[in-house]
Design goal:
- Na(+)/H(+) antiporter that extrudes sodium in exchange for external protons.
- It holds the Pfam family Na_H_Exchanger.
- It is found in: Cell membrane.
- It is a multi-pass membrane protein.
- The protein is mostly helical and 541 residues long.
- It folds into two domains: 413 residues, Na+/H+ antiporter like fold (Up-down Bundle); 114 residues.
- Helices cover 76% and strands 0% of the residues.
């Protein structure tokens, strides 16, 4: 037991040290952690073996749920056709392209087994790409597409993978049956996600205590995943749908203190799990290499080249081809206009290049490959399992390290940068609108609450001072580029809580109308959360 604890502590130490080094070097944490894991795998001593069931059932749900909580349901919905194109259709095309090419060029690999590999390597893991993109200022519209793709593609890939694997180990294939199973898995996952989100919403009305809310939050992804898999739906899709809905509803369902605490908890959970996962990826090298001794070198090279080549080429080809479709099928990448509607336009060449290089693969690919059984239903060895495993590992290594390191420089060369001045202007407009709402609420409270005159005057002065600051910032942005209890205390505190709530409601109206992106909403909401958290709780709260 002490040895296990020591090993875990050592991994935690590595994660923290590597994180500090990566920030100094300007490299994404996942890339450096994978390289460290590779180096450690070559040294004498114990290695952690990747257990597919542990990754899929324990690590994947919280990672997906946290990503969904931080995504924008409105932004994904506004670009739904593009997200579906990347997370469903592109995954299908990649899986069958890899499968067909491998069976054609490497006959020792049956079609079903090859498609299972194709499904394993098809879904990108956007962690590394988004880490780099946010650091260099990737435009929000491209970040939304990458986030949306990463949320939904795992469900698509794992569903195809399970079907292909069932055929490969001794079953029969029926297109109608496969289509029906895919539809049922999708519908089941969607329904479970909605139900779980509804139950969480009810629980939050009852459990106002931040610790209780956090406990429910930590249990939610596992509940959604288990329930989804139990009814033979997509557990992955259930987790994502629940996370998107709950993330959208959280501003109205949680108190400021609860939101701050939940955000801190999930940031820590995500940081540790991602660090563990990428260290684990690197440590699988010995297990992957060990099984290649019985294959001709030519077969190993050909299988690896075909798999990696197909993964790298299908994505840009798909992005280019979709731009030739009718306009109604184009990626919806336009900015919101004054009515909140997203304008449609095709991807530019620079955007295609940027999105093409954002297809880094990760732990889902390796977990699926390691989950391929050693034998088929009749007890015979699974055809070319070690070749498939090696190819999947190489895809992860090439995309995660190769694309992860070069993604930032590519974005800079392409000039794909977020409009920082426009974002700052929008946030200050929302701040100003929230202050107007707070001042209006204050006037109502003068008659409704027994608030001392001096408290009212102090709050009005504070709000008007902040309003002047925000309007001054807006004017600057327009003209310049960005570079012990006293009597009445309880009523005053309640009034300040109410004023903060009025600002929140105004910000939510901006968000719901499509005028304020969720990312900007969270920044402004955090400011209000900190302001509210600084207040002493009143008895009436």
């Amino acid at each position: 037991m002490l040895g296990v604890i020591g090993f875990v502590l050592a991994m935690l130490g590595v994660i923290v040290v590597v994180g500090a080094i990566s920030h100094r070097l300007g490299l994404p944490d996942p890339v450096l952690l994978t390289v460290v894991g590779l180096v450690y795998a070559l040294l004498p001593g114990p290695n952690l073996h990747l257990e597919p069931e542990f990754v899929l059932d324990v690590i994947l749900p919280p990672l997906l749920y946290n990503a969904a909580l931080g995504s924008s349901l409105l932004a994904i919905r506004s670009r739904l056709r593009s997200v579906v194109s990347l997370s469903v259709l592109l995954v299908l095309v990649t899986a069958f392209a890899v499968g067909g090419l491998l069976t054609w060029l490497v006959p020792v690999i049956p079609l079903a087994a090859a498609i299972a590999l194709g499904a394993a390597v098809a879904p990108p893991d956007p962690v590394a790409a988004l880490a780099v993109g946010r650091r260099v200022g990737l435009p929000a519209k491209l970040s939304t597409l990458i986030e949306g793709e990463g949320l939904l593609n795992d469900a698509t890939a794992l569903t195809i993978y399970k079907m292909a694997l069932a055929v490969a180990i001794g079953g029969s294939f029926s297109f109608g049956l496969a289509t029906g199973e895919f539809a049922l898995a999708t519908i089941g996952g969607l329904l479970v996600g909605v139900v779980v989100a509804f139950l969480v919403r009810i629980s939050r009305r009852v459990l106002a205590d931040p610790l209780s809310a956090n406990a429910v939050s930590l249990a939610t992804p596992f509940a959604a995943y288990v329930l989804g898999e139990t009814i033979h739906g997509s557990g992955v899709l259930a987790v994502v749908v629940a996370g998107l809905i709950i993330g959208h509803q959280t501003p109205r369902l949680q108190t400021g203190a609860s939101r701050l605490q939940t955000g801190a908890v999930w940031s820590l959970v995500n940081y540790l799990l991602e660090g563990f996962v990428f260290l684990l990826i690197g440590q699988q090298l010995p297990a992957v290499i060990a099984g290649l001794g019985g294959y001709p070198v030519s077969s190993v090279i050909l299988t690896a080249v075909v798999t990696v080549g197909a993964v790298l080429l299908v994505r840009p080809l798909w992005l280019v081809l979709t731009q030739l479709f009718p306009r109604r099928l184009h990626a919806r990448l336009g900015s919101a206009d004054e009515t909140g509607e997203a304008s449609e336009r095709a991807l530019t060449g620079k955007e295609i290049a940027g999105l093409s290089w954002a297809g880094t693969r990760g732990v889902i690919t390796l977990a699926a490959a390691f989950a391929i059984p050693a034998v088929t239903a009749d007890g015979s060895p699974f055809p070319a399992r070690d070749l498939l495993l090696f190819s999947a590992f190489l895809v992860v290594l090439v995309t995660l390290v190769g694309q992860g390191v070069t993604f930032g420089p590519l974005l800079k060369r392409l000039g794909l940068r977020a409009d920082v001045q426009d974002q700052a202007r929008l946030r200050n407009q929302a701040r100003s609108a929230a202050i107007d709402a707070a001042l209006a609420r204050l006037e109502q409270l003068i008659d409704e609450e027994d608030v001392p005159d001096e408290a009212v005057a102090a709050m009005r002065k504070n709000l008007e001072g902040r309003q002047r600051r925000y309007r001054a910032r807006l004017a600057y942005l327009e003209d310049n580029p960005l570079t012990p209890r006293a009597p009445g205390y309880e009523a005053a505190v309640r009034a300040r809580h109410s004023i903060i709530e009025a600002q929140r409601e105004e910000l939510l109206r901006w968000r719901d109308a499509g005028r304020l992106p969720d990312a900007s909403l969270r920044i402004l909401q955090t400011e209000l959360d900190h302001e509210e958290n600084a207040l002493m709780p009143s008895s009436g709260k």
